[in-house]
């Protein structure tokens, strides 16, 4: 954790617990963990860029389809925001300030750009968390238009959405998949992507750790994340810190999963034994 990380994390937790958590601020605060050079000026510059892009949109183009088309023409065609398979191999693809600069990123981060730009311009926009592939939606349920920012903003037919879900999840599309995604769920999904990136690169356990610790600052998170953090601390050589966390997790689950709690306490004892 670099010097200013404590303050950034305090701000992240405060934003996450506010009445209306801001998606762009939370994503930019994630960026401070990965990029120590990102400061208040850099955060402001990213917000200003989102404002600038919103100012390039035509004034209230019309209904959901017209909004989606205008966004695709601006961000996809004119500005070149899109994704490629190689973007999945880059941590930059999960960091909003870098995505704004590179105009490349994962589907969910490109969708964040779309949502933040369209929202500033007054569009009825929201994220849609299809399994394995995040897109954006415009308009009410009975007049919904979906667009895929990763594909330059291609407007999706119902059949297109079915194919996307079938290709990533192997199932048919369900109405519940098309509901607007909550900002905090979007942030959790971004952090999960970062953890998955780090899991494939054992030498980047530092990234896995800060992504876990930010997830734990969200108001609602799986209790198991505490166990995963404890395991990671042990793997990184912090045997005492990991053992303490393992015991704390065991205390949480002991009433509902006593067998699991005992196994975790054994892991804590084994971690402490490594100190000898």
Automatic annotation (TrEMBL):
Source organism per UniProt: Streptomyces atriruber
The UniProt family comment states: Belongs to the UPF0162 family.
**Official protein name in the record:** Transglutaminase-like domain-containing protein
The highest taxon in the source lineage is Bacteria
Kindly give the Pfam families that the UniProt entry links to this protein: TPR_9 (PF13371), Transglut_core2 (PF13369)
InterPro entries of this UniProt entry? SirB1_N
Task: List, for all copies, the residue spans of the domain called Protein SirB1 N-terminal.
Answer: 63-192
